[in-house]
Amino acid sequence: MDRRNDYGYRMPTFQSKHPNGEERTGSNYRRIPWGRRPPPPRDVAILQERANKLVKYLLVKDQTKIPIKRSDMLKDVIQEYDEYFPEIIERASYALEKMFRVNLKEIDKQSSLYILISTQESSAGILGTTKDTPKLGLLMVILSVIFMNGNKASEAVIWEVLRKLGLRPGVRHSLFGEVRKLITDEFVKQKYLEYKRVPNSRPPEYEFFWGLRSYHETSKMKVLKFACKVQKKDPKDWAAQYREAVEMDVQAAAVAVAEAEARAEARAQMGIGEEPMCSFGICPHS
């Protein structure tokens, strides 16, 4: 703003700092961040050391199958090297792939949630790092019911199918434990399923949907083939589902190619992969 006195001279603009750390210009205040330390210098050996710790951290955290938060990785492992998070996590991802045949995948960019995905598919058709268990088979049943019912299934429909398998709410099962808790709590926390109340339903009714993890650990085509195997039918007998599954596979393949190219470029710029894997202590037997 051009401020002049009675004689036509331009008045200078004075700046002063408020005691609370704000800078004053005229009648306005602009907050100046303070107290934040500058990032430490980039040291490849230290970044790799943090990446090694992150690998072990991720392998332990993954045992619960609950997605791992970026904020927890920063707080528990990366700490003051948060400015180098992209490089540290890329180094950790490289080690997981080469030494443990596991991919690190961000499944929710808004909430920054990560999971580990095995490159070796289970017999149930799921790429999770969990060994084959009856729970995975039950999960595939539920995912197939959801997909075959238009990508959502009411709780009543799910229980109708589960009752045919001898599973009932409130009755503890020798393999699955409390089944209701498994499908409405455990699978939901692990992001295999979403469990949502139907809007304006009275009394409350709920529906199941695929969770974010399921889209990465399996596919609609695999689930369709699973359902066809049970029903002893050909996938093409369900024309709409087959068409949707093919489209999803094509889209997923395109995304995978783009991600692989971007990752290769990033790793080349960071010099990842040039060092021997065991030079920084990343060995599967260490």
UniProtKB/TrEMBL annotation:
InterPro entries: MAGE, MAGE_WH1, MAGE_WH2, MHD_dom. One of its GO terms (biological process) is negative regulation of transcription by RNA polymerase II. Residues 47-245 form the MAGE domain. It comes from the Eukaryota. Residues 1-41 are annotated as: Disordered. GO terms for cellular component: nucleus. The keyword Amino-acid biosynthesis does not apply. Pfam families: MAGE (PF01454). PROSITE patterns: MAGE. The keyword Secreted does not apply. SMART domains: MAGE. Keywords: Tumor antigen. Interacts with DLX5, DLX7 and MSX2 and forms homomultimers. Interacts with UNC5A. Interacts with TRIM28 and PJA1. Interacts with NGFR/p75NTR and RORA. This is Melanoma-associated antigen D1. It comes from Cricetulus griseus.
